[in-house]
Amino acid sequence: MKTQLTIAVLATLSLPLHAEINISGFASVNGGKVISGTGVPQYDVEPTFLADYPIVSAYTQDFSMKPESLFGLQFTGNLSEGLFATAQIVARGANDYDAKFEWAYISYELNDSLTIQAGKKRLPLFYYSDFFDVGYAYVWMRAPADNYTWQIFNYNGINALYSGSIGDWSLSGNIYGGREDDTNNKLLSDFFFLEPVREIWKDILGGVIQASNDWLEIRATHMQYTNERYRSGEQVLWDGKPQRDGKFYGLSVNADFGNLFILTELNRLDLGGNLDTYMISVGYRFNDITPYFAYADFEEDATDGEHHDTMSLGVRWDFHSSAALKIQYDKVEEHSFDLAVAGDSESITFGIDVVF
Amino acid sequence: MKTRTLAMTLFLFSATTLADVAVIVHPSNSNAIDATVIKKIFTGKSKSFSDGSKVSPVSQSASSVVAAEFNKKALKKSSSQLKAYWSKLVFTGKGTPPKELSNDADVLKHIASTPNAIGFISVDSVDSSVKVVQKY
């Protein structure tokens, strides 16, 4: 029996000899609560802090560790000669730790500067979109919620990635195209419309260009797509039409002076009307301790359009070579009545981010 | 007064360079490798030497003294800043950090036998099997 098992194990072990599989991962264990808040009485929303829109990480006045905790594993198979297969599985507290493939793509390095990727990937709208789930990679508890509000955050398609340099500047960029058909979109179904919503972003076409030197980093992006939506199976019409076009523009400038750093983002989504978001953040590194401040705003260009902002104060402590402890205070102000999201709130959240 | 300040500054500088780090390559490697090139290679921004051959950097365990020195002096980053930098690239499919070897002896052995490799060890561990291209 034992020998048989050994042979079986050996047989299994000998299979992956062709591909070297590398496993890495990240995890965040976060908790928090709303200290005080108005909620949105006109929509029966209790005092809530919506810390992450697309995933619906909603804190209430009851302490909870589920909204933002997550566990991610990445498997990369090196098939040699520049060919890689990568899968990232993420289990989120907000989804009862139901593990899902968030990324699943094949990557081929044509040469030192050009790589082609195809499959399921994160939609790289914002500066932090790509590594939104990896809390260890940024200073705050989360990328500023008022900016990262869009309901679609992954896509299926093709991405061409370039990296190179000119003098002291490193350049990188990518061009991507694809679509996403989210049959039960979490943000729209669970938070806004309270009925099953199928959200389609098709004919997605976008580009990102990034330039950086020793202390300055500039990123500019544009993306366009066509939106279709079904509420409880019935197609939504906008001005009598079954689809609408969206155009996204983003600019991000980050400056790092060694200890002092400044991070900024400015974005616009034109969906027939403009939805503008921006954020500015400043931090200072005292060895392993980094206090920071952030301000973020979302404003729709319309009378009583969606409008909310957040002021955040927090500290990150790199107490271990692979782990960071963070605590953050957020004060959200709601400025809209008809399009109120979660009302005013003050919250405390804290947690540990690890990478391995 | 000015000379004294200068002398003192020099003294302070030399005091902080006691734990020297040497960047080493295979003796046959004749590429020009300065501090800028080293920084680009160890942050994944450069993938080849100036002659076009593919570069294969190796690092040491993040908790080692020599890695902390190298990260601070050559890359101007703390070990946790560097880890955050790499996790951003690793989990977005944009890069892979240098392989970590466990000590100076392993790095020395690896570099001495790998023509396109580059690594770092403490200056005291250097021997004639490798070529030193930079000291910090």
Overview of this structure, please?
The complex is a heterodimer of chains A (356) and B (136). With 356 residues, chain A is mostly beta strands. Chain A has a single domain, classed as Porin (Beta Barrel), CATH 2.40.160. In chain A, 6% of the residues lie in helices and 59% in strands. Chain A is built from two helices and 19 strands. Chain A has helices at 2-14, 186-192, and strands spanning 20-37, 49-52, 57-59, 70-78, 83-92, 98-109, 114-122, 154-166, 169-182, 197-212, 216-231, 234-235, 244-256, 260-270, 274-284, 289-300, 307-320, 323-334, 345-355. In chain A, the strands form two sheets. A 16-stranded antiparallel beta barrel of chain A has the order 1-4-5-6-7-8-9-10-11-13-14-15-16-17-18-19. The longest helix of chain A is centred in the N-terminal third of the chain and has 13 residues, at 2-14. The two termini of chain A are 36 Å apart. Chain B has 136 residues and is of the alpha/beta class. Chain B has a single domain (19-135), classed as 3-Layer(aba) Sandwich (D-Maltodextrin-Binding Protein, domain 2), CATH 3.40.190.10. Chain B has five helices and five strands, in the order αβαβααβαββ. Chain B has helices at residues 2-16, 35-42, 65-73, 79-90, 104-113, and strands at 21-25, 56-60, 99-101, 117-122, 131-135. Chain B has a five-stranded mixed sheet with strand order 3-2-4-1-5, with helices on both faces. The longest helix of chain B has 15 residues, at 2-16. Chain B is globular and about 40 Å long. The model of chain B is unreliable at 6-17 (pLDDT under 50).
